[in-house]
Structures are given as C-alpha cells and as structure tokens.
Fold these 2 entries.
Entry 1:
Amino acid sequence: MHLWQEFRQPNSISEAIEDLLNAPAPVVPIAGGTDLLLEMRQGRHEPANTLIDLTSVPEMNLIEKRGDSLYIGACVPISQILTSTLVRNNAEALIEACDLIAGPQVRNTATLGGNVAHALPAADGTIALAALGASAEIANHNGLRMLPILELFLGPGKSAIDKTSELIAGFYIPLSTQGQASAFKRIMRPQGVALPILNCAVWLEREERTVKEVRIAIGPGGPTPFRPTAAEALMQNQILDDELIKEAVKVVLEQGSFRTSPRRATSEYRKHIVAGLFRDTFNQAWERSKN
C-alpha cells in the first residue's frame, strides 16, 4: 500500500498554505517525519493523497534573533538546535530537552515543530518551551498569527491547529537577560526505552536571594502540558529557602493531575518523585542565574 500518491515541496510558507488548501486531499504536511511515517506504516494515521514536504521553506529553517526574541523555525532539526550557541545562551532548558529526544539519528531528522505538533502532554521540547514562555507562529491563508505555546493544546494528541488549513511556522522565545536562567530535567525508564516518567523545566529571574519571577512546566501533569501557576505565584518575589521549595511542591501536587500510565509509572510514583525532580531543576536554574 502506498502511503501517499503525490509529493510536493513548496519553497515558501505561502506556497505551503496554498498546497495545504488546494492539493488533492487528504493532505499531510511533513518535516522530519520520524513519528508521522511510522504511524502511517503502522496504520495509526491515514495514508495521504498529498504529502507536503516543508523542509525547503527557508523561513521554517532559521535560528536567529528577531527583536527581543529568539526565533526557531518549526523545521529546524533537533541536532541543529543542540549545536546553536544562540539557543544555548538564551534557552538552555531547550538544549537539555532536545538532548534527551530519542537518539542521534532521530535528532538529525526530527524537528521541534513536529515535537510540538503531536500535542503530547509530556513532550520534551514542549515542556521546555512552556517554561521559557514561548509563543508559536501560526501560518494560514490570512497570514501569520502568534499563539502562546500552551494554547496549542486541547488534550492528549489534540491540537488547536486546524491541520487542514494551518501550519506551525516557528517559535519565539524571549531573549535571556542578566539574572535569568532555565533548566530541564527528566526522570525516565532505561535509555533504550527513552519514555519520560516525568519531565520538568524551570525558567526564573533572580535578584540576589529573591525569586523575582518563575515559570514551571511539568509533564505529564494533566491532559495538556502543565504550568502550576499557583506555585509560580507563591514563589514570586520571595526569598529562596528550603521552606519555599517545600510549599511550592505542595501546591504543584494540589494543582496537578498525575495519572497512571501502564507503560511509564503509577500516579502515586509520579507524585512521589515530583518533589525531588522539581527541586533539582529549580536549583540548576538558580545556580545558572548567578552568571
């Protein structure tokens, strides 16, 4: 059985949208294809009449500064993000998350856009982007619009993007300034399985011993990527000590929904390990923010 009948390779976002709207349906966009092609072969995704390869769109392959933001195109391979000094200097949590995605061969092909587009609540890149306060640039026939990263997700595997008429073009991350830093850590099964039991990312801004601002992302902590905003509010403008961390963990457990997953871990185990994971991730970002 053929997985697709027609293959198109647009050279601009506008051409890609034109193909998405007018090519023989069903139309499926592809970049790395590391998940998509496997799902097609296994029958978990319907075959495409038209496959649209986005990797030749220049705007979707850039890593650059744009104003006060870092821009990463949706088709940039994970391995290229890992070697970018610009990303490392402004979004170290994303570097650490990307370094845990699959293995080297997959990272050479897989893209950040694909990692986010699958809309999984614990995806490594997604959790890092959520803590970094990223926004997604969405393309459709009306042009480009910005959407806060968490607004992309409706549920496990369910995206707010209309796949028949819209594409994720790229991501914007605020540039890092003095006193700001981020970190990402994961607890997972053996490396050969590479499934996260729990992911955590923290971005913070400090002033001496005071937590001026903090963003926390944990996954899976619910049906969508989870930001424990109550814990963030609790820590904001507070002097850091062990008691503050303990109180923040309590609020994370109250606000989150840590479910049992047969292939990963029980709800009880996830609740048990979240305190240590959060503390380690926060402390890593805190130490980095000194520099």
Entry 2:
Amino acid sequence: MNRLAQQPIKALARLCLYPEALKASASTSPLSPNLTDQTYALFLKSGHRLDPFLASALISKFSKSGYFSHALRFLNDAPEPYTVSYNALIARLAQFGPPGPIFGLFDWLRYVGLRPDGFTVSALVKACDGLEENEIAHGVCLRLGFGYGGFVVSGLVENYMTIGDIGSAAENCFGECLVADNVAWTAMISGYVWSGKLEKSKEVFGEMRRLGLELNEFSLTAVLGGLCDEKEGEQIHGVAVNMGFLCGFSVHLSNAIMNMYSRCGSGRSAVKVFDEILNQMLFLGLRGYELLMMMWKLGNCLEFYTLGVWRALTLKLKMGFPATVFAI
C-alpha cells in the first residue's frame, strides 16, 4: 500500500477520529490488513465499539478481498450483526472453501436469532459439492420458503445435475418451483443432455418455447448439445441468427453450432459458420492477438484452428493487409 493512500488514515488517527480512520482504512485500494489491524486496535482502546453498519462494511470488504480471518473477527466483535453481514462472508466462502464451515456459519446465523434471506440460501446452495449437502440445502430452502423461487431452484437443479442425479431429485425440485425462470429451464435441459436423455432435453426446450419463456444463448447452447439431427440443428441455428446472438461473438454458442454440424456429419456447414464468424471479426477490425485468441476459443480442434489461420491470411490479402502471421 503506498504512503499517499495512508496519509488520510494517519491524519484521522492523529485527530482521534478512530471510527472515521477505520472506515478509511477499509476503503483503501489495495486493502492493507496490517494498517486496518493497527487502526482497529486504537479504535477499541479508545472505548469505541463496532456498530452494525460499520461491521457490515468491514466484513463485506474483507470477505471480497479474501481476508476471511479478519472478516470473521469483525463478525464476532459486532454486537448486533445483520443478516447481510453473514451473507457477505458466506457468499465469499462459497466460492473458495469447503461446505462444512459455510454450513456451520449458516447454523450460527440462525442460532443468534437472525433469519436467512434469499441471498443466504442462494450462497448456501452454491457451496454444496455433494448429494448430501445439496439435499440438506434443498430441505432448508423448503422449510424457509425459498424452495419455490427460480434463482434458488436453478442452483439446486444444477447441483443435482453436476452430481449426476438428474432423475427424481432434480425433476422434483424443478416441479416444486412456482415461477421457474429461463435459468432453471436451461439447467434442466443441460442436465438431460449430460445424462444422455436427449429426447427429454428436446421436450423441455419445446415446452420452454411453448410457454413463451425468453430464450438466450445459454438455453440454445444447452439444447444444441443434444441434437443429432441436422434439420433440428438448423432450426436452432436460425433462431440464434434471428435473435442476433451470433453478432456478438458468443463463443459458447458458436462452438455448439459448429459441433452440432460436425456431429451430424455436415462438416461443410460447420466450416461455413466458422467463415461467417471470421468475416465479422475481420470486418470489425479486431487486432491480430484478439483475432487469434477468438479463433483459438472457437476452434475445439486443431483442424478448425489451422483452417481459421489460413482463411484469415487469405482474407487479409484480399483486404490489402501484409500476409504475415503476426499481421493476422
């Protein structure tokens, strides 16, 4: 941390404005845990105590920066922590740590008399890495009344799908949802594709369209993974084109379309899709490095990558650019 950033904090400390100095130390970038520790020691020595608002700000800041021990300390020192304070720590831990401590923190939140909200259970669901944890989280969501919302159900369904239980557990969870959004529907489609139930994936996608739910690049990518019929694939390809998803270089969707054509034995159609995307990239003037990286992402195999470099060279020559690899 540079000295310039420390000056306002030291000035506030010299004026004995320790709460302000503590807030300032937590808002500096990059965060300095040592400086905050010193400021916090002066804060406590002067007889101050954390209020819920300051505690929440400190916990959120240190959790997001990965300093979990500091965040937990402020949580324990807070006289009346809010649910949002626990949410900040639980959500960040869910991205890195094992589920055990996260479930323990969730239990402690309820023990101190706080009520979990939708963000709490959503983070709890994200922390699950096994069938047992997901079933426990599922039960908790139902008991607290959060098991019927789309954003929680999509997480539960995705967990069941990842674990490999796309049968009754995932289907029941999806069926319990009162207002399933396109994320939950897409999770079901992906689950059926990954488990080899291709006809079921198409049925769910068809029902999604029949209900008038909004399609996005993720739902199209999901259903394309289970198509082995070129005519069906062409229909989805047409939907993607009409909705403008291919104009923004959606790498996942473009890959799914090319893979679908290759899987159906239509390599010519796959190459045509690749050419169209490459032409758009060149037309928009992507620089050499950006172009190569995009082609690398688009090409699932060396054949497509080599083809892309060759076609880029050819198009560059036609457009009057130098014919060197570094000028691609």
